[in-house]
């Protein structure tokens, strides 16, 4: 990552591929089958590609959150919205949680924050916030998790 990094769909897929290609030959490939976790049904496999294009087009409109100068509250709100959309998309067979957190950590770093600290969040709190995102299109619980874990990088 450097100043010219564009956090677009190509970058997102490549991040999954480059991080996991030594482990799985489907790294960086979207799923084409349906997936559920618990009572949650993620985006249908047949629509993952088109839904992802649409989401990243919206993300481009938001300038990939490379908005120097917006308040922390506004940054958290926008980041939570796009993170919830990616959680609902669940585009890969596995490792969506890890790659989604890494992706938004990079965006946080780009904007002068530290990586988002989830260490004080209980796993079930995170899953419940994800359930709110996917089943009820409500990103407020995830927004709170991000607000609590996001801090400016004062070391710079
Ligand atoms: N029951 C659920 N409802 C909605 N989202 C869920 C549920 N369980 C897990 N998730 C979401 O899916 C992510 C895990 O997806 P997964 O592909 O297994 O990634 P990883 O292996 O990196 O944890 C979690 O971080 C959470 O955001
Ligand atoms: Mg997993």
CATH superfamily: Fido-like domain
Q: What is the CATH T-level topology?
A: Fic-like fold
Radius of gyration: 15 Å
Residue windows where pLDDT falls under 50 for at least 5 positions: none
**Number of helical elements:** 6
Number of domains: 1
- Averaged pLDDT, please? 96
Secondary-structure element order, N to C: HEEHHHHH
Name the shape in a single word.
globular
What is the helix fraction of residues, given as a range? 40-55%
Bound compounds, each kind once, are: adenosine-5'-diphosphate, magnesium ion
CATH class: Mainly Alpha
- Sheet with the most strands: spatial strand order: 1-2
Terminal CA distance: 17 Å
Largest sheet: 2 strands, antiparallel
CATH architecture: Orthogonal Bundle
> Structural class of the secondary structure composition?
mainly alpha
What is the percentage of strand-forming residues?
A: under 5%
Beta strands, count: 2
Can you describe what's shown?
The chain is mainly alpha-helical and 156 residues long. It has a single domain, classed as Fido-like domain (Fic-like fold, Orthogonal Bundle), CATH 1.10.3290. It has 6 helices and 2 strands, in the order αββααααα. The chain has a two-stranded antiparallel ribbon. α2 (48-61) runs antiparallel to α3 and α3 (72-89) runs antiparallel to α4. The two termini are 17 Å apart. The structure holds adenosine-5'-diphosphate and magnesium ion (MG). Residues 37-38, 40, 87, 94-98, 127, 130-131, 134 line the site of adenosine-5'-diphosphate (ADP). Adenosine-5'-diphosphate is lined by residues 37-38, 40, 87, 94-98, 127, 130-131, 134.
């Amino acid at each position: 990552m450097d100043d010219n990094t564009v956090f677009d769909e190509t970058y997102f897929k490549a991040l999954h591929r480059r991080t996991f290609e030594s482990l799985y030959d489907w790294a960086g490939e979207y799923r084409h089958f349906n997936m559920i976790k618990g009572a949650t049904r993620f985006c249908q496999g047949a629509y993952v590609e088109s839904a992802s294009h649409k989401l990243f087009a919206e993300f481009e409109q938001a300038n990939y959150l490379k908005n120097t100068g917006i308040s922390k509250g506004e940054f958290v709100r926008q980041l939570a919205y796009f993170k919830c959309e990616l959680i609902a998309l669940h585009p890969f067979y596995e490792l969506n949680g890890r790659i989604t957190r890494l992706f938004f950590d990079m965006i946080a770093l780009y904007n002068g924050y530290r990586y988002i600290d989830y260490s004080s969040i209980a796993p079930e709190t995170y899953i419940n916030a994800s359930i709110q995102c996917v089943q009820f299109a409500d990103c407020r619980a995830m927004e709170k998790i991000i607000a609590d874990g996001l801090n400016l990088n004062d070391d710079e």
